[in-house]
Structures are given as structure tokens and as C-alpha cells.
Amino acid sequence: MKSWKTLSGYTLTRVLFGRCNVYHLSNGRNCLVIDTGIKSEGKKLLERLRQLGKPDFVIMTHTHFDHTGNAGLLKEQFSPQFIVHESEKIFLESGSSPIPKGNMGWSKFLYGLGPNRVPHWFSVQGVKADLVFEDCFDLSDFGFNAYILHTPGHSAGSSCLIVDDQLVIAGDALGGMPGAVFPPWGDDGRGIVQSWQKLLGTNCQTFHPAHGFVIERPRLEREFIKRS
User: Fold this and answer.
1) Residue 59: how many CB atoms within 10 A of its CB?
2) Residue 143 in contact with residue 27, Cβ under 8 Å?
3) I want to staple 209 with a disulfide (CB 3.0 to 4.6 A). Which of 42, 70, 175, 203 is the partner?
4) Who has greater pLDDT, 84 or 124?
């Protein structure tokens, strides 16, 4: 696990790293978990969350199967409230996971093979969406100088967590491949770039994706200029 301190003294910990990064944010009283990872890592996730502090809330950056694989497990073990964008409430609750289109040659080819013809391969245990939002969800009532920002593109309801106007937990809004900023998968490539503009409108300097390593602001700025 790797941890960072924020300006308000919160501790951000990358609980799982690899197939889908899972993050834990604590202010010393309340805890948030961002995404839940793939089902096969459920046991490891539970062990680490018990060390760090049980989540009061789980924020879903979106509802693809590699992010919601342990949603049901966390609900059963810790009874947190789940927060998700209103457009993906139905997917969180049903456990279904539409596969995003490809943004690159190889991912377009794989999408063309028709993974959506076998949706049961990507289904997970559904959970109730306790809190939903449209454009922005303020977390100050829960003790965090943070908010969830709707950043569509990868999926219709993709969202990012902005903490202390310092760092972004970005889901699949960026990253996804070693050395890459533009994600290989997404339903709307232009929408992804437009959402980058939203993120660059904050003062955040680091962007923590769900796949891969931290991306620094100058890299995102360069990629944004190239694709604008």
C-alpha cells in the first residue's frame, strides 16, 4: 500500500494496485473508499480495509465490473452508503456492466469482437445506490474538503473525486496503460478531453487513476493541448 497526505491532513491510501486501483481516504473520523476492484481481490481488500478503517461511504467512479467487483462484499461486511452518478444507478443496483467502446486500434478491435453479447461474463453482485448526484456532490457534510465531479466520456456517469483542490482520484477519466494519459477504453473520446478541461480548471496537481501510476498536472496539460 502507498499513502499520501493532503493539505487538510487527510490520509489517502492506495489499497489495491494493478487490475483496478482502490483508494481509501480518511480524515481520522470518517473513511471513504473509492471503487472496489475486481472480485478475485476481495479477500485482500477486506484485510486491508480492516487495518485502515471501515468505510462509511463508497464512491463509485463508474460501474464497470472491474470497479464494482467487491461492492456486494463491502456492503455485507461494513454496511457503507454507496454514492454513484444518477445515470449509472441502474447498473450499480443490477450488477450489470456495459463494456465501453475502444479508443485505440487494439481496443476497438476487441470491442468489435462483441463482448456485450455475453453480458453475464461481466456481471457482479448489485448493491443499492444510497446517494446519487447530477453534476457535483459536496462531501463537506461528511467531514471532507472534497467533492465528486461528473466527468463523462469513459462512461456516461464517470466521475472523479477532488480532494483539497490538490489531488484527483480519477477513475478511468485518464490513464489505463503504462505511460499513457488518454484511456484506451471509452464511449466518447471527445467527452473525455472535455472532462479533462474540467479537471484542469481545478488547482489539482496530481491525478490518481484507477489503472496505472499517478499522473502529474504538466503531463495532463500537454496531452490536453495535443487533443484539443
Assistant:
1) 26
2) yes
3) 175
4) 84
Q: Mind listing the domains of the chain with CATH numbers?
A: 2-227 (3.60.15.10)
Alpha-carbon distance of 104 to 184, in angstroms, equals 6
Count CB atoms within 10 A of the CB of residue 126: 18
Pairing of strands 159-163, 167-171: antiparallel
Q: Check residue 116 and report its DSSP letter.
A: G
The answer to whether residue 118 scores a pLDDT higher than 70 is no
pTM: 0.91
Closest CA to 10 of 178, 143, 202, 184: 143
The pLDDT, as a whole number, for residue 110 is 46
Q: Which residues contact 76 (CB under 8 A, 6 or more apart)?
A: none
Which residues are CB-neighbours of 21 under 8 A, at least 6 positions away? 14, 35, 37, 208, 209, 210, 211, 212
The residue to which cell 481488500 is assigned = 45
24's enclosing H/E stretch is: strand 22-26
Contact present, 204 and 219 (Cβ < 8 Å): no
Coil vs helix vs strand at 27: coil
**Per-residue pLDDT reduced to its tens digit, 133-186:** 999 999 999 999 999 999 999 999 999 999 999 999 999 999 876 678 998 877
What one-letter code names the amino acid at 57?
A: F
Quick one: pLDDT at residue 107? 45
Cell (9 digits) for 140: 463537506
